[in-house]
User: Which sequence fits this backbone?
């Protein structure tokens, strides 16, 4: 696969500056389409969420402390959100690992989705080139598929601004 955009040294992973593949998305742009796998290995696409506001959080791995905290926090926050808001947590973890995490964390309000190919990661500008993991970012997509909030975190150890993402999702309703 030919990589059209390389953003060198923009993501700190354990003290090492990493290159992200894909464009840096901006508010007002159309969110890229996607094909991901759910915890049962079923294909899930952006069309499955048509008409819903989406908070899309990308994380390196649910089996790390910061990613675990972030996903649990979004699950908790999602309990108070309108039913027309869907929180998706996307990683390159296998669907099996995501299912195990969901059961262990009792997370039932978010959907964990697996990017096994890296195509999602590259389309959203979060694919860490040499690690084949996703960088931490949050995107809010409105009912029409337009980005209303974008936050790329500069380091793996940082958590997103939950309040800004939640406010953008509520405003998009």
Assistant:
């Amino acid at each position: 696969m030919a990589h059209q955009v390389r953003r060198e040294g923009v993501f700190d992973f354990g003290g090492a500056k990493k290159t992200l593949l894909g464009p840096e998305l901006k508010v007002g742009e159309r969110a890229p389409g996607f094909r991901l796998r759910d915890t049962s290995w079923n294909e899930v696409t952006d069309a499955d969420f048509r008409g819903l506001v989406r908070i899309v959080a990308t994380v390196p791995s649910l089996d790390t402390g910061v990613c675990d905290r972030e996903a649990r926090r979004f699950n908790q926050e999602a309990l108070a959100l309108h039913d027309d808001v869907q929180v998706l947590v996307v990683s390159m973890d296998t669907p099996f690992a995501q299912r195990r995490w969901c059961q262990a964390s009792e997370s039932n309000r978010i959907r964990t989705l697996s990017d096994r190919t890296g195509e999602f990661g590259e389309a959203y500008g979060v694919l860490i080139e040499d690690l084949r993991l996703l960088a931490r970012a949050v995107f809010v997509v409105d009912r029409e598929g337009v980005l209303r909030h974008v936050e790329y975190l500069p380091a793996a150890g940082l958590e997103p601004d939950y309040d800004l993402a939640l406010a953008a999702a509520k405003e998009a309703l």
About this structure: The chain has four helices and eleven strands.
